[in-house]
Amino acid sequence: MASFISISSLPSFSPTSRHRSLPCRTRVLVLPVKCLSTGPRRPSESDPETTTSSSSLSSSISTYRWCAGIGGLGLLETAYLSYLKLTDSDAFCPIGGGSCGDVLNSDYAVVFGVPLPFIGMFAYGLVATIGLQLARKNFPFGIDESYGRLILLGSSTSMAAASAYFLYILSTKFSGASCSYCLSSALLSFSLFFITLKEFGLQEMQKVVGVQLCIVSLVIATLSTSYASLQPISSSLAEVDLPFFETEITTPSSPFAVALAKHLHAIGAKMYGAFWCSHCLEQKQMFGSEAVKQLDYVECFPDGYRKGTKIAKACADAKIEGFPTWVINGQVFSRRGRIVRPCRDIWVFQVQSA
C-alpha cells in the first residue's frame, strides 16, 4: 500500500533579500518494493524443463541402441542357422544334443515353404537397422521419428508373438526336447518387446494397443494356417506304442546304385536306422529295391518301439543318436545323404547333415 509522508524543506535565503522565506511542505509518494531473495541467475543455471527434456532424449537414444544391439545378436544367430540350412549341415547344440537338431530340422521350422532362420534374419536385421537410424536421428525415405518408432514397436510385437507361439509348439509337440537356439531367440524377442514398451510409456501404448492386438492375431493366424496341414506329433515318445513293420522299396535300382551298394558292402560300411524313420526310407528309395539288398543295414528297433524299449545293442555300441547314421571307414555320418557320381573309378557316397 502506498503512503504519504511529509518532508519539510530546509530554509532558503534569497541573495537579494534579507528576509527569510517561509518554509514549505512537499508530499512524496512511497511505493512498496519487493526484492528477490535470490541473487541474479548465473549463466550456468538451466531450467528444470530443459534438464528433463535432455534426460528424456538421452534415455530414448539409449533405448534405440539397446534395440540395435539385441537385433544385431539375433541377426548373427539367424544368419548362422541360415548358413546351416543352405549348406545342409547340422547345428552345434551345446544344450539338448540331438533333440535340438530334430527341432531345427522339423516341419515346424518352415512357414509356407520359407525356413524360419530366413524370416528371423530379416526381422532382426530390420530391428537393428531401425534402432541405429533412430539413435542417429537419420531416417531414410523421408520417414520421421514417430513412424520409425511405430515400425519398431510393430516389429518387436510380431517377433514376441511368434516366439510365444513357437514356445508353445516346443512344449506340446516336442515334449522333453530342448532347443538352445529356440530359447535364445525367444529371449531376444521378448527383450526387444519389453524395451520398446518401456520407451513408449503407458499413455502412448493406450493409443496403439488395438494395432498391437491386430498384429498378434495376424501372426498367430498365419502360423496356425501354415501348420494346419502337418501330421500330428505325439506329445512324448514315451507314449508311443509302435509295432515293427517292414517298408517296401518301390524304386528301381540303376547300375550305378547297385555298383555303389556293392562297394559300400565291400568296405564294411553300415547304415543304422529305424523302421519309422522317413529319412531312412528316403535313402533306401534312392538306392532302389535291388541295390538296398546289398547294403549292411542295421535296424535299431527290430521289436518295435514302446515304453521301456531299449535300442539294439549294435546301435548302442556304435553310439547312434539319430537316424539314419552311416559308419564308413570309421567315420560317422548322420541325417541325409546323396549319391555322387564316381570320379576316376573312386566310389563316393556323400552323406551330409540335415
Secondary-structure map:
Elements: E1 3-8, E2 25-30, H1 48-87, H2 98-104, E3 110-111, E4 114-115, H3 116-136, H4 145-173, H5 180-227, H6 255-266, E5 270-273, H7 278-287, E6 296-299, H8 313-317, E7 325-328, E8 331-334, E9 337-343, E10 346-351
Helix pairs in contact: 1-3, 1-5, 3-4, 4-5
Radius of gyration (CA) equals 40 Å
SSE string, helices as H and strands as E: EEHHEEHHHHEHEHEEEE
Could you name the ranges where pLDDT drops below 50 across 5 or more consecutive residues? 1-22, 35-53, 233-238, 337-354
What is the CA-CA span between the terminal residues? 95 Å
Q: What does the main sheet amount to?
A: 4 strands, mixed
β-sheet strand percentage: 5-15%
**Strands across the major sheet, in which order?**
6-5-7-8
Structural class: alpha+beta
Taken from the alpha-carbon principal axes, the silhouette is elongated
**Residue share in helix:** 40-55%
The tally of helices reads 8
Number of DSSP strand runs:
10
Mean pLDDT rating = 77
